[in-house]
Amino acid sequence: MATFVCRVQFLDDTDPFNSTNFPEPTRPPLYTFREDIPLINQLAGVHRLLKAPHKVGLPMVNNQPWN
């Protein structure tokens, strides 16, 4: 079982002029991703760790190339 450890965080862009409701963490926490499990199946764990106010789903992941 291969793993990949990295720091994760979210950007609360629901109201870009008000950053007091959900302040960004000063130091993002570590999360261990498993390479044998699809990323979409691991997003719920990242969401719980961050206590993010966003809904979990595919819009969280931007995998479209920039044009």
Provide a concise account of the structure shown.
With 67 residues, the chain is α+β, with helices and mostly antiparallel strands. It has one domain (3-50). It is 18% helix and 15% strand.
Kindly report the oligomeric state of this protein. Answer: single chain
Which range best describes the helical content: under 10%, 10-25%, 25-40%, 40-55%, 55-70% or over 70%? 10-25%
Gap from first CA to last CA: 36 Å
Biggest sheet, spatial arrangement of strands: 1-2
| Average pLDDT, all residues | 76
Structural class by helix and strand composition: alpha+beta
- State Rg: 13 Å
β-strand percent reads: 5-15%
Give the strand tally: 2
What profile does the largest beta sheet have?
2 strands, antiparallel
Total separate domains: 1
GO biological process, one term: sarcomere organization
GO molecular function, one term: actin filament binding
Protein name: FHOD1 N-terminal GTPase-binding domain-containing protein
Organism: Sphaeramia orbicularis (orbiculate cardinalfish)
